[in-house]
Structure formats: structure tokens, C-alpha cells
């Protein structure tokens, strides 16, 4: 026996008018958004991104040519191997950034949910034992190779920010309740960041948690939950660093890298030697000594150490000031957007950038234990650079629709 669906109550004349008015308002908002999307991008933010990318390529060329010449089997005796590959992605990424900046960011609404599903599937594929498409390097399985090699955690970062921005922007006052403003987002963060941490990729998990927490805070959650989450985060970091054996050794030799400078503390001790060798003004661009196979990961996670050695405290300080200017400009754009969705998008991507820069510089200078985290726009990694520049393109897209200001 088939069941028949109950008939819906026919709408009254007033309800039909109200529905038509809502549809008309949505059409008007979309039309207004399309017109505003034709406005100029924030030139200051764009120039800062391009300047950092260009400086990053120069430092990468200097830092990478010894290892490219001596170690890279596919192109042995080609000192430009890393630079050429990164240069292609930098040009492509800049084109993608400018292209994305022309899109109306409102079209990203709804894409976050699909990206969450895709990123979770990819993250599960990474941690499945003996998966033929998973790539393991230096004791961690963080990559998938499906035609191209990429880190699913990079997609997860974009997914979290896009979905949170769309969902939080619709809830408004509901964000102050635990049921609607904390629980669903905390669950998503725990699942996604947990999968990333299992790889293991602790720094990637921290980036996801940091961006998500910042967006929830801007979205209006109660400060009580912020304090609770901060306490829980401190507890989890303690467990990760002092209880789990994989990370415990890193903490021991972080506190005293000279205790085993030839083995466990080798990377950090060499990094500190590299930074100290630069002095105030540096040895000169291209004149680093430590990059000649003394400092591991000199063109990747520890590229800032080479910048310190060649450019000195002054040059490294200028690089940090440029990053600070970019981050502050990002938050300035967030303060001048026309809607909550744009504000949350910019806050998410800017916070992620800020946390990543802070963690990388803290690691290479010994302020924090060694973790595998790259320096945006500088470290070698084509797909990571491409995604970073695409994210900057989203911020530029939002900047087209900023509220008018007296001074930009």
C-alpha cells in the first residue's frame, strides 16, 4: 500500500507577497554584488603579496642551488631545479590570484560544504595503511599523488574557512548559543584537525584550529567558550608534546639542541648557527655557507634561516615587517567589508597566514619545537604556493566590494 504525501497548505495572498519580496531582495542584492565586484582591488595588499612572492623566489634560488646540484637525482648537476619548478608555480599562482580576484566572492557560498566532504575523503585516504596513492616522506604520510602530488591538508584549510564563513554569516545571534554556535563547528574542527594530526602533521592541525577558532570568535561566540577551548587546546598540546613519544624527543632537544648536536638536535643547532652567522647586515645575497649541505631543509621549512644568514638581522627584519604589513592590511580589509561573509572569509585566510608565519619563524629561531611547517611564499612547494596565492585572490575579490573609505 503506497502512502500519499500530505498536501501542503496553500499560501495565503500575504504569504505569497512576502515570498516574492524576499526573492526580489535576494535578486537585488546579487545584482548589487555583481556591480560592486567590478570595483578596484586593494592595490596595497596585492603589491605586498607580489613583493613577498618575488623576494621568496630570490631567496629560494640562493638557498636551493647546492642541494639541487648535489642531491636531486632527477636533475643532478642542475642548480636551478627547485627555482625553475617554483617559478612556474609562482607565475601560474599569480595568474590564478588575479583571476580569482575578478570573481564575485559571493559565489563561494555553498562551496564549503562540498569541500569539507572532499577534504575528509582525501585525509582518510592519506592515513589508510599501504595506500598506493599515499606518499610518505621523512617519517610522515601527508601527500597524495593523483596525477599531481598535493597535501590534502591544504584543501582542508580552504574548506574549513569557506564553510565556516558561509555558515556563521547566516546564524548571527544564534552564534552565542552552545548548540548552534559552538557544538557543530567544534565537531568539524576536531574531525578535520584530528585527521591531519594523525598523519602526523601537528602544525597543519594547529593552522586549521587557529583559523576556525578566529572565525568563530569574530562570528560572535560567547567568550566563556573561547576560554574553555583555549584551556582544552593547551591540554592537547601538552599531551602531544610531552606524552606522545614522537613529539617528546623534539621537545627535549628543542630545550637543549647542543646536548646531541650531531643527531637529534642537529637541525635546530645548525639553524641557530646559520642565523647567528648573518650578524647585523648578513654575509651578502647568495653567500650563505650553511646552505652547502650543512642545514637540512634549507630551501623548505628552514629557508628563513638562510635569509637571516645572507641578509642579516636588518634584511630578516624587513621580511618580517612585510609579512606584518600584509597581515594587518588583510585585517583592515576585513573591517571594511560590506557583509559578514566577506569579513569571515578574510579573517580566516589572514589568520591562517599569520599563524603559519609565526610558527615557521618561531621554529627556525628555537622559540618553538621543530615541526614541519613552511614559510608562505618562500618555502619550496608548488601546489602550496598555488593555493596560497589563490587564497590571496579571494581576499582581493572581497576588497573590490569594500565600503568606501576616506583613506585607503
Shape: globular
* Biggest pleated sheet: 3 strands, antiparallel
Structural class: mainly alpha
One letter per element, helices H and strands E, the order comes to HHHHEEEHHHHHHHHHH
Looking at how many chains there are and whether they match, the oligomeric state comes to single chain
Distance between the termini: 69 Å
Radius of gyration, taken over Cα atoms and rounded to an integer in Å: 24 Å
Q: Give me the side-by-side strand order of the main sheet.
A: 1-2-3
Portion in strands: under 5%
Low-pLDDT ranges: none
Please give the number of β-strands: 3
InterPro entries: Cell_cycle_FtsW-rel_CS (IPR018365), FtsW (IPR013437), FtsW/RodA (IPR001182)
Function: Peptidoglycan polymerase that is essential for cell division.
Pathway: Cell wall biogenesis; peptidoglycan biosynthesis
Subcellular location: Cell membrane
How would you summarize the topology of this molecule?
Elements: H1 13-36, H2 43-70, H3 81-101, H4 111-127, E1 134-137, E2 140-146, E3 148-150, H5 152-171, H6 178-181, H7 183-198, H8 202-219, H9 223-243, H10 245-255, H11 266-278, H12 303-335, H13 340-364, H14 382-399
Describe this structure in words.
The chain is mainly α and 408 residues long. The protein folds into 2 domains: 41-102 and 246-403, no CATH class; 106-243, no CATH class. Helix content is 66%, strand content 3%. It contains 14 helices and 3 strands. The chain has helices at 13-36, 43-70, 81-101, 111-127, 152-171, 178-181, 183-198, 202-219, 223-243, 245-255, 266-278, 303-335, 340-364, 382-399; strands spanning 134-137, 140-146, 148-150. It has a 3-stranded antiparallel sheet. Helix 2 packs antiparallel against helix 12 (303-335), helix 4 runs parallel beside helix 7 (183-198) and helix 7 (183-198) runs antiparallel to helix 8. The chain is globular, with a radius of gyration of 24 Å. The relative contact order is 0.14. The model has no long low-confidence stretch (mean pLDDT 87).
